[in-house]
Design a protein that fits this description.
The protein is an all-alpha fold. It contains 16 helices and no strands. It holds the Pfam family MFS_1.
Length: 399
Amino acid sequence: MSHQADTEVSGSRLTLRIVQIVCFTFLAYLVIGMQLAVLPPFVHDDLGMGAVIAGLVISTQYVATLLSRGFAGRTSDTAGPKRTAWIGLLACAVSGSLMIVAALLRAWPMASLGTMLLARLALGMGESCVATGCIMWGIGRVGSEHTAKVISWNGIATYGALAVGAPLGVVLVAIGGFVMIGLSAVSLMLLALLLAWRRPPVRVEAGERLPMHRVFGRVAPYGMGLALGSVGFGVIATFITLYYASQGWSGAAPTLSAFGVCFVGVRLLLGWTIAHFGGYRVALGSLLVETVGLIVLATAGHVGVAMIGASLCGIGFSLVFPALGVVAVERVSAGNRGAALAAYSVFIDVALGVTGPLGGWIASGGRYGPMFVVAAVLSLAAALLTGTLYIGYGNKARG
């Protein structure tokens, strides 16, 4: 995917090349993060909608991301990842514009809700294109042997942005109302589009393009593990604010930040373990830690204990995506890895898309603890699946 000179970089220079690309992921997810702590209360309290509708608004983004993954993957493989990322940033800017309109229509709840759903659809498409485009763009800049590092740094940008974005969104709403969320999104995306335009593209790999269903079939076992392990993040991101409110606690935004900080810390300090121990082993250990965190969160009787549980979830979930992703993309040729990454990412979209309305249904009586119990069971199931894959495919690969 890249020229020879681009693959022979190491150390700080390599990291710099990656950061120059994943900074666009950071800016896009900053827009997403700003909405996490303020969108559910806006829908639930200001518009007078129930918990199910609040969950549906959040999940709409994930559904749109799911539906646009194939487009993002194939565009990255054929037109280049830079163009894919640029399209995604533009979609995020459109989303911000629609969010401004939704805020201005606050006095008409159904009109505001409809506009907000359109904004979330645009944001979902933007997310898929930015995420896939930036990862493949970064790999093209430093070489496929650094795939795990690129995915890890992209995740650092993702959840670092969520950690910053959640409290930033609260501050922005306090300063200028919900309309500030849309205005900030448009401003950030215009800056990102300008910077992205100046970054060099990478060469598109030649070769046979596998049909998407064949690519999907090759990565499906790993994607299923990712999906099961992603439910915990989904319920935290979507319902932690309402969970804290039901318990009479404050500090939901700092808890989201704690999750993000722990996620980033593990990526920075332990990202090397994927190359050293292998994706299967790292994913298995990570999923078990996440399971423990979800159990702690479900049984917490104090805000401090709940924050510890969320932090453990951040630690556990941190390396699941890159650990399983590395072994997933290795199952296709270089010219199909954009499609493979997109197909693999579909599974987290499905998980997060289902989590919102299903979690809202489980918590419709005002009891949010059972959601975290269900998520813990699914995380444990993901660990068992990963162990099975390791015994099967992992041993064959070593042989």
